[in-house]
Fold:
Amino acid sequence: MSDEGRRYSRRLTHAEAELWTMVTANVRPFRARPAPSAERQSSASKVAEPGREKPPAAVAHRDRPPPPKSPAPLVEIDHRTRARIKRGRLEVDAKLDLHGMRQDEAQRALGGFLRRAQADGAKVAIVVTGKGLSREDGGVLRRVVPMWLQAPSLRDVVVGFGEAARHHGGEGALYVRIRRADRHRGG
Structure:
């Protein structure tokens, strides 16, 4: 017998058998739909006869709402944009200083600030977190504000963000690009 004809198999160890039993304890077999036969495919491709209803699956699919649009991915503020801001060719439209705030206060302030800035037509904002020089790993706000900016709740407001230029606070501040407000909402 050739090597191709033989199958290598071994018995499971006691530990492997126990693990397999635990893993498969709550598993139900998948009921696959039968593949459409050639006859069904050819009859389905014909024009529907008058008075004949559409299959229930087609009706159910049509009635379902479309899946929600996923927000565009965040982008890092690129070198060119940062240079334009630094040289004053791209205006900073709003500024928020989070110094001295607790995390919950700062998170609420950030969300409200960005939504107001968006409503006012701002394109770029500065959010000052502070450098957190009293700690080796930086301040709490400096670490958590980037996570808040990436949160799903702010994806309709924030296009992207990146570290500010030195004269705007450097590593203790962030430039935030603000998404244009949707003019078609509610109007």
